[in-house]
Amino acid sequence: MHGAVGDQSRTMLPEINLQGDVDIAALSPLLRGMLLSVAYADGEGGIGLTATGAMNRKFVHWAAVHFLWPGFTAEDLYSMNKVLNESDMPPLWVVRDMARHLKLLRRKKDVLLPTRRGREFLVNPQAFFDLVATDYLYSYVHATEREEEVRARLRWWRMFLNLLNIKARKGCTPMDVVKILYPELAPLSDTEMTLEAWELKSDLQYGVFQRLCWLGLLYEAREGLTLLQDGSFHKTLLWAACLQLESDTQSDIGVH
User: Fold this and answer.
1) Is 20 left (phi over 0), alpha (psi -120 to 50) or beta?
2) How far is CA 245 from CA 39, 48, 79, 118, 211, in A?
């Protein structure tokens, strides 16, 4: 569910401010998913809802095929499920939450319909990017998280973004970042690292890397990897188009 997080730490957060002409629908899975959902609702007379209020299977199947969401394509999802319900496609929860939170879709009986604001979003998604991105990256509470975790992360975002600004130029993994943040773990073997740093890595992977990928600022190179291996994360064109950071002119980073 969407949960807004307090404002006391917002002053420390790097500002997201889209400059220049980039194709956000091509680069950002989240914006693309929101655009496609609102456009579908507009063109199809709404997104049908089940008796429990979930998006219906017809739309979930359509979304799986059209969203082209990395790691959640139709092929990925149908390899695990015979039929798809809303609960089988986690990115759809976020798309729906964000569209509702920003009042782009409204519920009327058993359908979701676009609002006037939703139609404005379709015409000019660029104008909504800063709002969507800031809210999703810093405040959104994923279904698998607690609000306290999201709030606790606020004070670290500037450091994370500056660190990745440098390290994701050539590509880095969550474990690379763990080793930079916790140098005392660096001498450990891979097996020991996995045991010792599992939770740290998991927090970074889902709290930081996944958000940046879903927003479209990073992408994960996964060519030739198994499901359990971490890919290398790289910056997209969208990163430079919306973030100006202290580390833009630095060639390497010192973490103290």
Assistant:
1) left
2) 34, 43, 40, 31, 18
Mark whether 176 and 242 lie in a shared domain.
Answer: yes
pLDDT of 8:
47
Both structure tokens of 63? 């979304």
Model pLDDT, residue 256: 45
- Could you report the per-residue pLDDT of 161-187, keeping only the tens digit for each? 999 999 999 999 998 999 899 888 878
Residues 77 and 129 in one domain: yes
Structure confidence at residue 188 (pLDDT): 83
Last residue within a domain, chosen from 119, 136, 153: 136
**Which strand (E) or helix (H) includes residue 220?**
strand 218-221
Q: Could you give the number of structural domains in the chain?
A: 2
Beta strands in 45-125 (DSSP E): 47-48, 105-108, 111-114
Whether residue 150 is predicted with pLDDT greater than 90 in this model: the reply is yes
Q: How many residues does the chain have?
A: 256
- The two three-digit tokens of residue 64, written as one number: 């799986």
Q: What share of the chain is helix, strand, coil (3-state, %, to 5)?
A: 55, 10, 35
User: Are 78 and 45 part of one and the same domain?
Assistant: yes
Residues 63 and 88 in one domain: yes
Burial of 8 (0-12, 13-18, 19+ CB in 10 A): exposed
Residue 152 and residue 95 share a domain: no
State the residue range of the domain holding 118: 20-136
* Longest CA span, the chain: 59
Q: Residue 8 in 3-state DSSP? A: coil
